[in-house]
Design goal:
This protein has one domain: Four Helix Bundle (Hemerythrin (Met), subunit A) (Up-down Bundle). About 85% of the residues lie in helices and about 0% in strands. It is built from five helices and no strands.
Length: about 150
């Protein structure tokens, strides 16, 4: 069976979960903390942009998907704001780890909700051919975004 958008998204979700766990285990005043935070920030940003374009937008076009798409977009925005807060504090700030914990909780909540609810709602809206085509589009855009964000 060809890859669907959900297969591609779950792969990034697992990377996000792993990076969150690794981030919370880092020590202050280490290069490792900055490296893991940067990797997580890039993964989240590339994933969110591609996911919004190739899953949320098609679902927003359906009345039955409107509410769940708006909710998911709102959670992406909350995650973006937490990352901005963490960047402005700097990885060695006293309050940074508390923000990192909050970010990890928010990411885990969002991924769980998306996989358990949003995927089911959208799965009823999208045809099988769309799910396969969207996987290819998502992957290409994710890789493009990831490369662009990694550059600077």
């Amino acid at each position: 069976m060809p890859e669907t958008i959900y297969d591609a998204l779950r792969e990034s979700h697992e990377t996000q979960r792993s990076l969150c766990r690794r981030l919370l285990r880092t020590r202050p005043h280490t290069r490792r903390r900055q490296e893991v935070f940067t990797a997580l920030r890039i993964e989240l940003a590339a994933h969110a942009a591609a996911e919004e374009r190739y899953l949320y937008v098609p679902i927003l076009m359906s009345d039955t998907g409107l509410s769940s798409s708006r909710h998911a977009l709102s959670e992406h925005h909350q995650i973006d704001e937490l990352i901005e807060d963490m960047q402005s504090l700097g990885v060695n700030h006293r309050g940074w780890l508390a923000k990192a914990r909050k970010l990890s909780e928010k990411v885990h909540h969002h991924l769980r909700e998306e996989e358990r609810k949003f995927f089911q709602v959208s799965g009823k809206i999208l045809r099988q051919a769309q799910k396969t085509a969207l996987a290819k589009q998502y992957r290409a855009d994710f890789m493009r975004m990831h490369a662009a964000l990694s550059q600077g």
